[in-house]
Amino acid sequence: MDFVDLFGYFGALIIGIVIGLFGGGGSLLAVPVFVYLFHLNPILATSYSLFVVGFSAAVGTLINIKKKLIEYKIALVFTVPALGSVFITRSYIITNLPDVIFESQFLIITKEMALMLLFSIVIFLSAISILKKNKPSAFQKIKNINYSSLIIVGLGVGLLTGLVGAGGGFIIVPALVFFAGLEMKQSIATSLIVITFNALFGFAADMIQITIDWRFLMIFTSFSIAGIFLGTYFSNFTDEKSLKKNFARFMLLMALIIIFKEFTF
Length: 265
Prior knowledge:
Blueprint: H1 3-22, H2 30-37, H3 42-67, H4 72-96, E1 100-103, E2 108-110, H5 111-132, H6 147-164, H7 169-180, H8 184-207, H9 214-234, H10 240-264
Antiparallel strand pairs: 1-2
């Protein structure tokens, strides 16, 4: 194991710490760690990220089950269309994308490059949503659950999860607040069970098509799980609001770094 590998596993630990501190967000670090530190193909990296995202969300879900914060009916309405969208994306869209998405005299965008650029956009939007999330109560409380909107958003989240291996919590949580009228804590808890099923289902779809390095993946995930417990412990002694803002700024920087690396290497 060389220095770069050790740095990569340290990144796995940081992913878990972020998840433990904030209940999410750390999964957005997984794909860059897999691609730039372990030099995995972006498609394989998104697959491995799905496993890490799903497993991490499952840990949070088990905690929330004890706290009785999950709205299971709403989670089911959201999850079913998302699962279908994830399956179609991983099984058909990803596999059938052309190797070269765009080509001109000055620029060639490959499938792998396009996925990383899309991922940088997701990171950017996530960071912006965190920086603007100062007043969760700003969402207007509704009386009737808008099931059709939940289904549409579920389809979109499934597409996003399938493409970039991210959980999509920055979309799910506001949707559950706005379209289902849930409190913020309920929305976060319910979003984790949606993310668990989406990510693990997407990973299961990939297992049919790719060879998984289970030893590597389990070591990486073990570091992430250790980080979750560390982050949960640290959360008792930290200012969450200030940490979230600093993490969002770091995410913005990461998005710019990804764009720079994809256009210069």
